[in-house]
Amino acid sequence: MTSRQPLFDRLVALSASDWDAYTHHPFVEAMGTGTLPQAAFRHYLVQDYLFLIQFARAYALAVYKARSLEEMRSGLRGLSAILDKEMDLHVDYCAGWGISRAEMEASEEDMPTVAYTRFVIDAGLAGDLLDLHVALAPCVIGYAVIARRLAEAGGVRDGNPYSLWIAEYASAAYQDLAASAVESLDRLAGDDLSDGRLVRLAKLFGQACRLEAAFWQMGLDKAP
Ligand SMILES: Cc1ncc(CO)c(N)n1
């Protein structure tokens, strides 16, 4: 019975308090209500641009770590989704907040950005493809879960400056991407995951959730 439960659900259950602290962080709740200070969001946006560059490197590593052509192509789709789509979207979106590409490129990575992105890359370098995808899961899937909840609670509405952010990650395209990330965890894990491996994977997952929470907190800490 437990083996039929998606690996993602088991990881969330094993790291419930870290997962909840990440997905219900005060930064997230304030985006939903529209009360997040703009300075917090702008700092987050610039750091997220730098985050995405490193995230692309993590997908490049997924191509390298692939054990089959199919897995290589899947890593390549993730890489090009970031480089060819998400980065451009991000630049357009930041322009709407008066932040130029030049300003983002001139910015330095804050410690939480360095910590999170290099943690993910190291998880992939030191481990196998499943370790890497588990370390990536809170990013890819977490944003889909957060945005869906905020959208269902009425976060996308006139007058909420964060509507577009919520709508983007609540969109069918992003929700589909997250659903395929959930499936790929099960495909990579196969059906003979030992208890010991599960515990090690849950450690990676919980750490990534704490680093996501620290990423939100970095934004809040910039609010006057
Ligand atoms: C910090 C962070 N986590 C996850 C995502 C989703 O891609 C993102 N853009 N930024």
Automatic annotation (TrEMBL):
It catalyses: 4-amino-5-aminomethyl-2-methylpyrimidine + H2O = 4-amino-5-hydroxymethyl-2-methylpyrimidine + NH4(+); thiamine + H2O = 5-(2-hydroxyethyl)-4-methylthiazole + 4-amino-5-hydroxymethyl-2-methylpyrimidine + H(+). Keywords: Hydrolase, Thiamine biosynthesis. Signal peptide: none annotated. GO terms for molecular function: thiaminase activity. Pathway: Cofactor biosynthesis; thiamine diphosphate biosynthesis. Its EC number is 3.5.99.2. InterPro entries: Haem_Oase-like_multi-hlx (IPR016084), Thiaminase-2/PQQC (IPR004305), Thiaminase_II (IPR027574), Thiamine_Salvage_TenA (IPR050967). Residues 19-221 form the Thiaminase-2/PQQC domain. SUPFAM superfamilies: Heme oxygenase-like. The keyword Hydrolase applies. One of its GO terms (biological process) is thiamine biosynthetic process. Catalyzes an amino-pyrimidine hydrolysis reaction at the C5' of the pyrimidine moiety of thiamine compounds, a reaction that is part of a thiamine salvage pathway. NCBIfam families: salvage_TenA. Belongs to the TenA family. This is Aminopyrimidine aminohydrolase. It comes from Oharaeibacter diazotrophicus.
